[in-house]
Amino acid sequence: MTVKNLVIVESPTKARTLSQYLGKDYQITASMGHIRDLPRGEFGVDVENGFEPKYVIPKEKIKAVNILAKTAEEAETIWLATDPDREGEAIAWNLLEVIKQKAKKKKAFDHKRVVFHEITKGAILEAFEKPRAMDSDLIEAQQARRVLDRLVGYKLSPLLWKKVKSGLSAGRVQSVALKIVVDREREIEAFKSQEYWNIDVEVSKETKENFVASLAKINDKKAEVKKRAIADEVTGDLEKASYEIADVKAKDAKKYPNPPFTTSTLQQSAATRLGYAPGKTMKVAQSLYEQGLITYMRTDSVNLSPGAVSATRKYVEDRFGKDYLPHGPRAYKAKSRLAQEAHEAIRPTNVQVTGDKLQVTNDEKKLYELIWRRMVVCQMAEAVVAETSVDVSAQGNEKYLLRATGQKVKFDGWYKVYEKYPITEQLLPNLEKGMKLNLNKVTPTQKFTEPPARFTEATLIKELEKNDIGRPSTYAPTISTLHNRNYIERLEARRIGPTPIGKTTVDFLVKYFPNIVDLTFTAGMEDELDEIAQGKEKMAPVMEKFWRDFEPLVAKVLEEAEKMKPETEETNEKCEKCGKPMVIRYGRFGKFMACSGFPECKNTKALTVDSGLTCPLCGGNIIMKRTKRGKPFWGCSNWPDCKFASWKKPDLPSNAKQTDE
Question: What pLDDT score does 349 carry?
């Protein structure tokens, strides 16, 4: 049966959404993502002939590809409607190449490339009215990225198996990301905490309106109290002093809204506000995009279409009033010098559609509302905050100056969209210069300087973006790979840290392949790959320049480098089989305990974590365990006598025993 128009997209959801806007003359089918790739079990790059990649169709996709190719052969026109980025362009090209190869009738296929950044009726119809040719530069740029990643990964990974530990992998972006995490951990380990003291003075007006001022200056210099003896001396002086307002400064500060979301800022905000891992954020955003609810979610641009800005301004005026509109539309500029400004930021396709109107999953609703609010506020008037700074002098001890600050929202502006103001209001009483104050109490507090914070997944993405490492589509899979390879682990408060394997891997790469983990070198490679996309460079010479230094270095390291053994974490437990200490090791499914006498003693057991909860059946301790596949669950420490187990952490009962942690 002849098909007049065959439209090929990546997913069934996207196909269903497009079917709402295209007529009966269009048959829409899904390729289910990539239909061919470099082979899994071999190098797959011909370095002698321009680094030509060898593509194969995965076994699990052969049947579906054959059906797709047969349908395409009967079509009058093939419309390639894959995503509007490098990867989407490469998928479209691969689709066409496979269709040509499998065609029984050797003919020239009438094909058209359609690109849209949102799946709405207007955008779809416009795209199909204005199809374009394949972008050979984008295709070559995506091939270059894939080939470069294969050159690095396929050669370095086996080297790590031999010289560090089996099952490891190395990647162009993942290795740099891992080094950033390891460097921060080493900075924390080397940090030496120093004592310091904060001294607060609670004072009040005659009307008993209290407020707290903090010691700011000693002898006109910034107050630095680093020892208890000095803190005691200062406290004694302040307890004898009388107090007077030395100065009052008040100003109105304008607080401007943030730009609309890019891939990176969406992942960061979703992690901070919703607790979503980057991979989850992208999966949920992909679903929202394919349902036609948001624009394309892989972008580093903060540009907005004039139509979207106009619609948002109208919504703001209708909902909140003219006072909440800025004088003119707000425009934003991306911070990254490599941002593709022709693209749009992530925004709702229809700002009139609020989250409560959607029939979607709870995760999708939460992420949509995050995106919706960010779009609305980016076109709203700035908030106005009254900021007050009060200097208080200690009379009788003129060498001491104290300071109190306060802030109050005078006009909420874009704050109005949020349930809570994104600042904390601190109210001070009405104060005037020369006003006498009553002393209530002096409170010295001992503090210690703290090391830099460990990265969260969100702040790691921010660091990668700041250094031009990777691109929007790479952040989530990079972090997932670091977790899957046990290079990093999740710690308290959503922080991440390197495992011993991660540290050893970085040490090995820094010692033998410093360029691979060098931020400047990696960012420079990103520049060259982007120049291929812009038609300024060609893949072969860029790959050749990298390969001619890299290949002999791999051979040299393979021959000369000594094996580096990852550190082990010791425990207080003894092996019940041989009596040697048990240590913590990392396997395919995370941490486990193993005998330090390996390989002579092969005893292993699951690593358990005490929850501080009491078993509701027998009163024993509830501990977190893992299945053989690595999935965590909660069970009783008295197993097998007690069979209590739960996939979810049990609620804390009123009589639960809590640990000190």
Answer: 96
Give how far Cα 473 sits from Cα of 26, 37, 357, 500, Å: 30, 17, 29, 28
Q: Read off the tokens for 280.
A: 């989850």
Show the tokens assigned to 82. 């894959």
SS3 497: strand
Same domain, yes or no: 576 and 592: yes
Kindly state whether residues 316 and 409 are assigned to the same domain.
Answer: no
Task: Spell out where 476-580 has E strands.
Answer: 488-490, 496-498, 569-574
Residues 249 and 268 placed together within one structural domain of the fold: no
Instruction: Answer whether 392's CB lies under 8 Å from 202's CB.
Output: no
pLDDT band at 229; cut points 50, 70, 90: very high
> Is 28 among the domain residues?
yes
Please report where in the chains the tokens 């989250």 appear, as a residue. Answer: 355
Compute the average pLDDT of residues 100-116.
Answer: 85
* Contact present, 190 and 591 (Cβ < 8 Å): no
Residue of 529, 555, 429, 384 lying closest to 470 (CA atoms) = 529
Q: Is 243 exposed, middle or buried (0-12, 13-18, 19+ CB in 10 A)?
A: buried
Contacts of 514 (CB under 8 A, 6+ apart): none
Backbone angles phi, psi at 244, to 5 degrees: -145, 145
Average pLDDT over the chain, rounded to an integer: 90
Task: State whether 297 and 347 are in the same domain.
Answer: yes
- In what helix (H) or strand (E) does residue 200 lie, and over which residues does it extend? strand 195-204
In terms of Cβ atoms closer than 10 Å to its own Cβ (0-12, 13-18, 19+), residue 336 is middle
* In 411-518, alpha helices (H): 457-466, 475-484, 500-512
Q: Mind giving me the DSSP string for 228-294? A: HHHHHHHHHHHHH-EEEEEEEEEEEEEEPPPPPB-HHHHHHHHHHHH---HHHHHHHHHHHHHTTSB
Q: Is residue 144 part of a domain?
A: no
Question: Which residues lie across from 445 on neighbouring strands?
Answer: 198
Tokens 């950033």 correspond to 180
Report how far Cα 45 is from the mean position of its chain's Cα atoms: 31
Number of domains, the chain: 5
% residues pLDDT > 90 (the chain): 69
3-state helix, strand, coil in the chain (%, to 5): 40, 25, 40
Are 515 and 545 in the same domain? yes
- Report the range of poorest mean pLDDT among 195-209, 303-317, 362-376, 618-632: 618-632
Q: Which residues lie below 8 Å from residue 203, measured CB to CB, with a gap of 6+?
A: 210, 211, 212, 213, 243, 392, 437, 438, 439, 440
- Active-site residue identified among 243, 289, 296, 487: 296
With tokens 């530069």, the residue in question is 137
Q: What is the DSSP letter of 166?
A: T
Q: What separation, in Å, do the N-terminal and C-terminal C-alpha atoms of the chain show? A: 69
Alpha-helical runs (H) found in 349-452: 362-377
Enclosing domain of residue 34: 3-134
Give the SS3 label for residue 526.
helix
**CA proximity to 267, closest of 542, 19, 137, 458:** 458
Identify whether 400 is a catalytic site residue.
no
- Asked if residue 564 is part of any domain, the answer here is no
User: By the 8 A CB rule, do 344 and 377 touch?
Assistant: no
**Residue 58: cis peptide before it, omega within 30 degrees of 0:** no
